[in-house]
Amino acid sequence: MQIRPERLLADLRELATIGAFETGVNRPAFSAEDLAAREWLRARMAAAGLEAAVDGVGNVYGRMPGVDHAVLIGSHSDTVPYGGWLDGSLGVIYALEIARAVAESGAARRVGVDAISFQDEEGTFLALLGSRSFCGEAIDGDVAAARSKDGRALADALAESGLRGRPPARLDARRHVGFLEAHIEQGPRLERSGGQIGVVSAIVGIRTLRAVFRGQADHAGTTPMPMRRDAGAAALMFGALLSERLGAHGSPDTVWNVGSATFKPGASNVVPSEAELIFQFRDASDDLLTELERLIRDAAMECARPFNAEAEVVRVLETRPAAMDPRLAGLIERAASELGASAARMPSGAGHDAMVMARHLPAAMLFVPSIGGRSHHVSEDTSESDIVRGAQVLARAVELLLQDGTRSPA
Amino acid sequence: MQIRPERLLADLRELATIGAFETGVNRPAFSAEDLAAREWLRARMAAAGLEAAVDGVGNVYGRMPGVDHAVLIGSHSDTVPYGGWLDGSLGVIYALEIARAVAESGAARRVGVDAISFQDEEGTFLALLGSRSFCGEAIDGDVAAARSKDGRALADALAESGLRGRPPARLDARRHVGFLEAHIEQGPRLERSGGQIGVVSAIVGIRTLRAVFRGQADHAGTTPMPMRRDAGAAALMFGALLSERLGAHGSPDTVWNVGSATFKPGASNVVPSEAELIFQFRDASDDLLTELERLIRDAAMECARPFNAEAEVVRVLETRPAAMDPRLAGLIERAASELGASAARMPSGAGHDAMVMARHLPAAMLFVPSIGGRSHHVSEDTSESDIVRGAQVLARAVELLLQDGTRSPA
User: Fold this and answer.
1) Residues 6+ apart with CB under 8 A from B63
2) CA A74 – CA A88 distance, rounded (Å)
3) CB burial class (10 A; 0-12, 13-18, 19+) of residue A32?
4) Cis bond leading into B265, ω under 30°?
5) In this model, does residue B386 exceed pLDDT 80?
6) CB of B4 within 8 A of CB of B99?
7) How far apart are CA A274 and CA A285, in angstroms?
8) Does the pTM exceed 0.95?
């Protein structure tokens, strides 16, 4: 079973012409370009011999006929606004190419390959919409409430897409033996370490919190320091303490970010009456995230006290960590080793459809290096040799899985 | 020499009707209300026997006829937008009432009293415009460049006021033996300590700085902590260190405030590429301010380093401290003591016209308590008894100065 590098690269490049912007792609979910790309993919899957359709939310699902079981492979073809050409698309074209390679190998099989491009992984309307719908998760409420940043309702986007009412593609526990997603790393670890293949151990959980400190707006010249209720000073002390605490108590892979700070009223000569920090922290262990959140909440109270301020910490968003399946990850490692590619186990610091899939069946992910660690930008890129190597390793992992494929999911 | 409390309070209340808003006053410099108030004042000064005129920038200057020397007394009658009824107006009406009391005392004098209301102390267009113009400071460039927050040029405001071309009122070194300004405290110190009269030792200098940290916008999940260039983390550490350093190295009267924080791009999942803090610190000693600024600049560099960021610290504004004249301050203290009022020496944490005047002649200030320390708000207020007591103490200080008034400025 052999993939054909030229065909793989040609399809990746052709897909990148749909919504092309500078050296990147602008193809947010449900844009005309996104829908055109999905129709193009459907036709490509059909040409590869898959039973392919775009479903009621925009998932493009290609089913290999004549098999009892299938490895599901894929990612997403929607992009962030004015994003890169590989984020999502890489994993989708890998799936298409591997399905072609399996079909071309000619062997009669009980276990085949299904390919998928999930809708709106990037959250233009509702992050991970496609994979959540595919897995039959309860999303009707979220779908009804979801709006894009510019105020368009997801319900309207669905109606205008002409897709509404089509049957949903669905995970089939009897058919699907596992899910494999290839993706660009979106970070610099592989490039910096010289690794060629990232084998994802887990997708980290993310907790996004908002800390609001409340004090009193007073004249910053005439009010003695001990009489102030200084929300800004409390927030600054908290921001510094947060880094210290997470550095001291997090795992080596814990990351965090204070992304936004807002002081009100915002004048240099007025003591801030309100100061807000929005921050998030990520780790592969949910227990550790819970412990860190407790430390952070304590730190906020500690920092409010000396400045006579009040602190409120609210959880804005929570995504739970998702462990990848050790057997599938092991197969990717074995495939890399057989092909002489250097592989490194690593957590994924970003969310992916595989995070949803892992809640329902064994799932694993393969990363290829991102040049300069860049993503979500038109400069996002991966060398051709890394793109081809990633596809070859994933294809070999699929081959190993198909040979071993009588094992259905538990 | 006796002031008349009822007349004083009636004039204060009448002035507050011009531009009245709720329990406060909206009379920004060069508004129709401000110009009307200045014309009202001019007429009141003329009725008190002063040679009164509104000058080319809007200063209302009333000159006592028939004297060789004069104590200049006054403040400003413009307000911040929707401000209080006493800020500035109190000192202007004290000047008017004391001029009346001197005139009514009937004694022939070589030394009299001049009254003044300076223009735009609050900086609607150009802070301290009136006193700087009165002292003949070089302000032509500042006047040409000045605009209000809503974009109106000071030059246009001057032209439209009909004042342009009128002769400027000017400080006269041979005539003016000193400047006295009464003002509400705008802070809680007198009220909290039970003091009735504040005798200002110095008006603090203010340095307003902007610290900008520059890093790189990276994915906050996929970029390992040591590889980040985190402008936000540097700014937070700096904000916390700033408080520590100023607390440790400032004087007991040093105050500081981080009033504004802005992170770009401002998303919880993107490492901030730029973080700006705008802050100020105040003290009565210019040498100490210089030393503190050096410590702050060092702190910014220290905080940038561990986060691979760059720091730039720019001085946005500098007002130098102004010491009050010890002899004049002593006369206010003596007057308070004679009238049985409790007096406390204190620095002024806010800027005042007396700060400009002190650069050119002996100047002193008297504070009356502000209820709840509030100012620049419609709720700003002072009890009637405190208003009257302040006028009586200032009048007595003027009387002492007139008795002692053969001493001209050095």
Assistant:
1) B50, B51, B52, B70, B114
2) 8
3) exposed
4) yes
5) yes
6) no
7) 33
8) no
Provide mean pLDDT across the span B67-89. Answer: 97
Chain B hits for A219, Cβ within 8 Å: 186-187, 349-350, 373, 375-376
**Nearest CA-CA distance, residue A166 and chain B, Å:** 35
For residue B255, the surrounding DSSP H or E stretch is strand B255-264
Specify which residues A202 forms β-bridges with: A323
Mind listing the pLDDT tens digit for each residue in A208-239?
Answer: 999 999 999 999 999 999 999 999 999 999 99
Q: Give the pLDDT confidence of A294-315 residue by residue, as tens digits.
A: 999 999 999 999 999 999 999 9
A138, A95 Cβ separation under 8 angstroms: no
* Residue-wise pLDDT tens digits, A74-97: 999 999 999 999 999 999 999 999
Contact at CB, A268 and B255, closer than 8 angstroms: no
Instruction: Provide the residue type at A152 as one letter.
Output: R
Minimum distance, in Å, between the CA of residue B169 and any CA atom of chain A: 30
Complex-level ipTM beyond the 0.90 threshold: no
Token pair belonging to B244: 């520590």
Sorted by sequence, the CB contacts under 8 Å of residue B337 that are 6+ apart come out as B343
Bridge partners of residue B71, in order along the sequence: B113, B178
For residues A136 and A99, the answer to whether their CB atoms sit within 8 Å is no
C-alpha separations of A366 from A14, A76, A119, A122, A387 in Å: 23, 15, 20, 19, 11
* Contact indicator for A182, A301 with CB cutoff of 8 Å: no
- The model's confidence at residue A108, banded by pLDDT at 50, 70 and 90, is confident
Amino acid, res. B209 = L
Residue B106: which pLDDT band, with cuts at 50, 70 and 90? confident
Q: B326 at the A interface (CB within 8 A)?
A: no
Taking an 8 Å cut-off on Cβ atoms, the answer to whether B375 and A222 are in contact is: yes
Query: Could you read off the pLDDT of A110-165 as tens digits, one per residue?
Result: 999 999 999 999 999 999 999 999 999 999 999 999 999 899 999 999 999 999 99
Tell me how far CA of residue A151 lies from CA of A89, A143, A154, A156, B268, in angstroms.
26, 14, 9, 11, 20
How far A329 CA sits from the closest chain B CA (Å)? 19
